[in-house]
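Observation: inputs received (chain + zinc ion).
Thought: call the complex predictor directly.
Action: predict_structure
Action Input:
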Amino acid sequence: MQKITVILMIMVGMVLSSPISHAEEKAKPKKQAVEKNITLIHAGTLLAVPGQDTLTEQTIVIDGARIKEVHAGYVTGADLLLPYARIIDLKDKFVLPGLMDVHVHLTMGEDGGDGPDDSALAGVINAKKTLMAGYTTVRDVGSMGDVIFKLRKKINKGDIDGPRIFAAGQIIGVGALDGGLECNGVESCRRTTRSLIAKGADWIKIYSSCSGSKLCSNKDGAPVFFDDEITAVTEVAKKYGVKVAAHSHPRDSALFVLKYGVSSIEHGSFMNDKALKAMKKQGVYFVPTVGVHDMLEKLKREGKVKGRVLAHNDTFMKIHPETIKNAYSKGVKIATGSDAGVVPHGKNYREIERLVDLGITPSDALKMATVNGADLLDQSSDLGTVEAGKYADIIALSANPLQDIDNIEKVIFVMKNGRIYKD
Ligand SMILES: [Zn+2]
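Observation:
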């Protein structure tokens, strides 16, 4: 639910050349340096591929930023002829891939304030909170100004602690009516979309219906764009190989944008069978953001909403969970997105817990928070599982989340890109 409307990849190339006469003396120190870059994780329980069975007593071999291999049993550096390898003992822990949240607003929320300075600071604070909660990758689907692109750059450089960010920048809407960046007529929609991509957007986020905080986000609410406007946005995005995420609450707005090739429907509160079947057929992801109900329940408990708004929220809280269960039973692809920024940052796991409360198995919910997130982001070859060749984004819990999903909160170890952030 969008409450306020405001506002890449590291390539390492190494060229080695040395005169033949010096080759031998240079070889020795070089070998040591490489070995020191090797880390071995002894994992008591390893959920290498969420959705599949766990493995016990495994050794994950990490070389620099990537996983080199996964061995059965506990292997030491001496066994691998890598005496300088560092060993991390997680023998009594539950190890799994870093979690992914594909719907956050890092520059918004309680620390967000009103201006660009506040939102920049909030981004730094929230990035760290998110990473410490075990989330090594996020998709930011709506930021204040362009600060999210700068935050992404600093995190990639290693100057700021935070998750990998795939960022949409500001949300595209119709302008004054919904608070999004203006897409009003074909020319303006093209211009706005092109300019976001030029600034560095790796996703485009659109409002296909009005913000969830407004009454027009009810079941019968109208899609906000005309056909030629949404066509302009999706065609520009397609031209530059950028995917589109659509915010949608009413029954018909998702169905409307699905005609134009969007890749994910966010919230999707009142989607009917027809929309869900179309999503399944097109392989479009559903990002339900059910964690937002925490906030709505709190508002109700504290008597902060009344009258039409309360009735609106009540209907939403009744129908939205049914839509999610319906999508799950139909086999629609689901990825976890917390809408942190609307709800607190660093508690992104609430989404996983609430999905399990709705009857989704812990195994499936963890898959939605890893494997499926990577698939939606087109990062399956690099992220989402603990397998050879992938980035070493690995976390550990002090207890098994498959037995009790609340254990997902017990994050005691976080590694991203082979670097340890929490131990
Ligand atoms: Zn949102």
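Thought: report the result.
Final Answer: The first strand starts at residue 38 and ends at 46. Residues 2, 103, 105, 141-142, 339, 342 surround zinc ion (CB under 6 Å).
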